[in-house]
Design goal:
Distance between the termini: 49 Å
Helix content: 25-40%
Radius of gyration: 24 Å
Strand order of the largest sheet: 1-2-10-9-8-5
Length: 407
Amino acid sequence: MICSTLRRVGHVHIYLVRKASGVSKGHHQQTVGSRPAASEFAARGASGNVLELLGKSYPQDNYSNLSRKVLSRVGRNLHNQQHHPLWLIKERVKEHFYQQYVGRFGTPLFSVYDDLSPVVTTWQNFDSLLIPADHPSRKKGDNYYVNGTHMLRAHTSAHQWDLLRAGLDAFLVVGDVYRRDQIDSQHYPVFHQLEGVRLFSKHELFTGIKDGESLQLFEQSSRSAYKQETHTMEATKLVEFDLKQTLTRLVTHLFGDAGAQDQIGWAFGLGLERLAMILYDIPDIRLFWSEDERFLKQFRVSDINQKVKFQPLSKYPAVINDISFWLPSENYTENDFYDLVRTIGGDLVEKAELIDKFEHPKTHKTSHCYRITYRHMERTLSQREVRRVHQAVQEAAVQLLGVEGRF
């Protein structure tokens, strides 16, 4: 999809989109015990190795950067687990669209796809959306690559091209998406996205509009294999208004009153975790992966629209440790370190933040100091057991990232 107009409503980026013509394809338990070997920290594959994932085999190469932590989450599909808070949000959105948008024959206008594989090609994730080859969003530091041609999707938009090409013009896609990111209560390397797409023909868009028969979707301009003509102001405003109305009705339903060759349309993407955290007062994104019965039973409701206010589990004390090291001369990113911390510390890590940078005046080497907050969701941690995990982080940083420890 080509983004023709961008708006921001709350925390949602809204796009008016059009499909380009002629585009061608060229329960995980955290155990605190003896320190694991460095080889167990990540599943980064050397050339010649093969990764088995969701029933398929993928050869590994120098692009492969999947951590064992992330691989343990693939296939969990929290959004499809009945009575999970993410499932509740998904079902409420589905119910709203089924009731509000009905086709000519009384059937739902929007179709829903919530079981598409999270393993996609880089073409699906980037090229089908006309993201340039040198765009920074393709960086290894921000994505999880299976190999040079396949990856864990960074957004559900990776499926837009295939669904539009199949002839669909109104659909919702729900699924887990994967991004390397910072560590805090709002961010996790796996989260769940719900995306909506709707296209309109000229007749659908302008019916009921005064003098609508004389209006056009496109300005008089040239079309190429990678770019359409410019949409007219009238078409853009009408689609923008329709999208605003769609999202306003959806938000009201959840919270109460608190491009194609001859079509135009909109698309939106919502993070299910962010919606659930607001709707149910869930304070930490790690909780969505909890198998603690005290958490799960709070969402076993007979009516998906029933109000639920999360009752916090006991707040166990945090254990804080710092780590500092000299960076290697090249090939280091902060997300590499965060990914390593997540892999070793798992969900014991509540937060990791860069608290100090220092450049040596003579050697010009750069030092980073990170503060790591450890907190178990279900019991109190001792400094002794955290020290074992923290030392494993230190050792792995030296062995896998090439840093020089200052500890």
